[in-house]
Design goal:
By secondary structure, the chain is an alpha+beta fold. The protein folds into two domains: about 50-160, no CATH class; about 160-190. It has helices spanning about 1-45, 105-110, 120-140, 165-200; strands at about 50-65, 80-90, 95-100, 140-145, 155. It is elongated. GO terms for molecular function: calcium-activated potassium channel activity; potassium channel regulator activity.
Length: about 200
């Protein structure tokens, strides 16, 4: 009687462990699919792939401009902000080009090097842009990214999805997939050993 209960409990435990392993594999596949349709296209679309050094030539704050391509900016008069323009000397080619914060900055407003995320408080936005401008004047040389193919003549300060970020995004689903497969293999080995012991 006790032996039957132990066998039943063992089978239940194996079934739960197998379901856990299959669930982990299924979740990792869903995460792979989500990363593949969201992050990977932005990474492959970016042409600013080569890192070099940029030297600041000038960093000026122009008059307030509007953000025509920002989300939720139907009424442009609500979202004026000072336009920071940073021009740098590209070490790789020696050209004088305009610097943008990320790839999105160029799409949102190609006239400005920096587009603030939150535009509600004009005083905070102005102070932030002035701080950024002073930092550029203070730190003259810094790493930046340019397009080696020459499609884009401008440069960006940082990529939205660098190689390290892409690898980190794939790390967790890979660990989950490996753990799920390991659980399934261990359950199958346990079942095989149980059947072999019963047969002997």
């Amino acid at each position: 009687m006790l032996g039957k209960k132990l066998v039943t409990a063992q089978k239940r435990g194996e079934t739960r462990a197998l379901c856990l392993g299959l669930g982990m594999v299924a979740c990792s596949m869903m995460m792979y699919f989500f990363i593949g349709i969201t992050i990977v296209p932005f990474y492959t679309k970016s042409v600013w792939t080569t890192e070099t050094l940029c030297k600041v030539l000038k960093a000026n704050i122009k008059d307030k401009v509007f953000c025509p391509n920002c989300e939720g900016s139907e009424d442009e008069e609500i979202f004026p902000y000072p336009c920071l323009q940073v021009w740098v000397n590209l070490t790789a080619s020696g050209q004088e080009v305009m610097l943008y914060q990320t790839e999105d900055t160029l799409e949102k407003n190609p006239k400005c090097s920096y587009v603030p995320d939150k535009l509600e408080n004009s005083k905070e936005v102005k102070a932030r842009i002035e701080t950024i401008a002073s930092n550029f004047k203070k730190y003259q040389t810094f790493p930046c990214y340019y397009d080696p193919g020459g499609t884009q003549t401008n440069v960006i300060l940082s990529r939205l999805y660098p190689s390290q970020g892409l690898l980190f995004a794939f790390l967790w689903p890979t660990l989950m997939f490996t753990g799920g497969c390991l659980i399934i293999v261990l359950v199958k080995i346990s079942q095989y050993v149980s059947v072999l012991s019963a047969w002997q």
